[in-house]
Amino acid sequence: MKKVKYVGLDISTSIIGVCFLDKEYDLIDLDNIDLKKSKDIFDKSIIVNDRINYYKNNYNFDDECLISIEEPFQSFSRGFSSAKTISQLNRFNGIVSFIVFNIFCIKPLYINVNKARKFLQIKIDKKLNISTKEQVFSWVKQQIPDFVWPTKKLKSGPNKGVVKFHESCYDMSDAFVICKALNIYEEDNK
User: Fold this and answer.
1) Which end of the chain is more exposed for a tag (fewer CB within 10 A), N or C?
2) Read out DSSP for 153-184?
């Protein structure tokens, strides 16, 4: 099994995207932690703690592994999250950051998502009728064409039986971007 040199996390209170790359920044695995069935932040924390422990015990990590986390929002943007949502997300981001530190004894690095996209030359076209998340997902799919993304089969409605990508794909894509952007940190610290 290849050694994991880089780990990237895209943290939210519903789904956490997780990416594992080797020392050449090649994909080892992409995963997600689904927290939707749990409404309580403490129950969510226990689920995350258990899964991070699972990763620690089941993946082969490099002695000098780096862990990156998408920097949380620090200001309001028109049409986005409320103060309550941002506060809750920042609180949970801190909890997950501590869990990661506690299990791996590695201080996570926080990477701004816009800086990461710019570094990776991901062009977001605001004029398109395609969301930013969809554009990032499309870019990541091109980077790792052999990866099998999770899907779901619609159970009802006019599209019953249609198979589409699971919503966790967006979080996994964001985790890939944040992980791949660890190269920013390494370039800045040479």
Assistant:
1) C
2) E--SSTTTT-EEE-THHHHHHHHHHHHHTHHH
Domain ranges within the chain, ordered by starting residue: 4-188
| E strand residue ranges, the chain | 4-10, 15-21, 27-34, 61-70, 109-111, 151-153, 163-165
Spell out the per-residue pLDDT of the chain, length 190, in tens.
799 999 999 999 999 999 999 999 999 999 999 999 998 999 999 999 999 999 999 999 999 999 999 987 554 444 455 777 778 888 999 999 999 999 999 999 999 999 999 999 999 998 889 999 999 999 999 999 999 999 999 999 898 999 999 999 999 999 999 999 998 766 666 5
- DSSP assigned state of 13: S
Determine contact, residues 178/7, Cβ cutoff 8 Å. Answer: no
Domain 4-188 sits in CATH at: 3.30.420.10
Cβ neighbors of 28 (< 8 A, separation 6 or more) are: 2, 4, 20, 21, 22, 59
Token reading at 60: 């082969």
